[in-house]
Amino acid sequence: MTNPPGASQSPRDSSPFSTTDFGTTDFGTPEQPAVPTQRPADPQLAKASHPYAQAGQQTPTARASAPLVTTAPLARPTAPAPNRPPDEPNKPGDTEPAGPSGRTSRLRIGWHSMPRAGLRRITVTPVTGAGLLLGRNQQQIPVPLKLFSPRPERVALIGGAWAAQLLIFRAFSIGARAIVVTTEQRAWSGFGERATGQYNRLTVLGGEPSSLPSGTAQTPSLIVYDLGVTGPATAPPLGPWSTQLTVLRQLDRPGVAALQEAGLTLMQRLGGDEATLAAATLRLDQQNGQLLQFMTDDMLAVAGNGPDQFVFLNQTALEQQYVGMPRR
Asked: CATH code at 269?
């Protein structure tokens, strides 16, 4: 049938798969799928793939190789005999070889020789004793300070607050507790908390106490009197493991008694009159009395602890952080 002129065709009519063509198109006979050839099933595979296979049963071979259960106690395995030469029999007690041949060789100590020039270079450092490390002397030998002992000790320091705080800071490292009696509380305010992180390791008092706590070997007691140019008027008696440290900012006649009572005297750099008075009181020779005027800020003179010495304090970075740089 032919459409009249001017009539529009539908999309179905313009499709290449029109109704007329669809009816005459031969798609052929659909191909049948190939049927796979079945093989006879293997009895062993069928048994293994069966969901209800008897897993608990064992084959005759597995039954033969299974270990037998016994009630006898387990015996310690015997160690192999050591490797020995064929002509040497085993000895009783040999359980394991001590070396490649089963025997250890005898230790042989020989002689060691050294030329005379080498012997001259050998030096022995003398024993310095025990105590709080103060520094090193001019020969670079460590100088210990016997600051605490079972009996009471008295030490005098001619110097400033920096040297006193350095000694206290080092005493903190061995467990000491300190009490500071001073007329300048601002110089000591907060020092104990900064140095130890605890508020009870250092106590600052504005007046002389009536009694003092006793120390122990684990926690010695350090009583510091920072009263200017003189020592305490009436100091309470010291107990065991307690040390009195008298700080004299300057040495004058009122402070001579503190030097005479002290068993050990430490001195920073002194002026001319101070050096003369200290040398006369401590019976220093003329050379050491003059050297008291030329020490650097990081030095201390030690008198009364054996021979007189001039010590370099060798301040650490941590001590500089909490105590400050050396100063007089």
From this structure: 3.40.50.300
